[in-house]
Task: inverse folding
């Protein structure tokens, strides 16, 4: 890597460590200093969204709805919204999938493990990014740090 890239990387890490919201967001698997800093600076305050799905819709990570007569039909992802954050989150979700042997939430028998066996890889990445965004909204709106769900015994 060129010297300038190292300097920029160090600057991003410094800013992420200095920002309280970014530090909390980095506890989520798949979200590192770059994504956490980008969300902390580019995303609007979480109070303007009623729930995590609204935040995911703002980013363009929710399925398009073609519902009528009480029958819910979901289509492809809308891709409307904040493009750069959406891309970063999908890249972060991809890192979780690539390193699934490290992440407890991606092992066989989990939601992500089951999705990987029966769905196309890109669909799983977007679905995981959607899930990550909802967690991001919850942490930004309610505080705290990410705690991995306990596996059912």
Result:
């Amino acid at each position: 890597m060129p010297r300038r890239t190292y300097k920029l990387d160090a600057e991003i890490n410094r800013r992420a460590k200095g920002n309280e919201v970014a530090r909390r967001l980095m506890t989520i698997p798949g979200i590192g200093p770059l994504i956490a800093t980008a969300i902390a600076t580019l995303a609007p305050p979480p109070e303007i969204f009623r729930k995590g799905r609204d935040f995911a819709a703002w980013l363009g990570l929710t399925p398009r709805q073609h519902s009528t007569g009480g029958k819910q039909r979901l289509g492809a992802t809308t891709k409307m919204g904040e493009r750069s954050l959406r891309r970063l989150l999908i890249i972060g979700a991809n890192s979780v999938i690539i390193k699934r042997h490290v992440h407890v939430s991606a092992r066989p028998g989990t939601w992500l493990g089951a999705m990987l066996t029966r769905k196309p890889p890109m669909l799983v990445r977007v679905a995981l990014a959607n899930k990550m965004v909802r967690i991001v909204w919850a942490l930004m709106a309610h505080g705290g740090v990410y705690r991995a769900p306990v596996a059912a015994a």
Observations:
- Residues 20 and 40 are 9 Å apart (CA to CA).
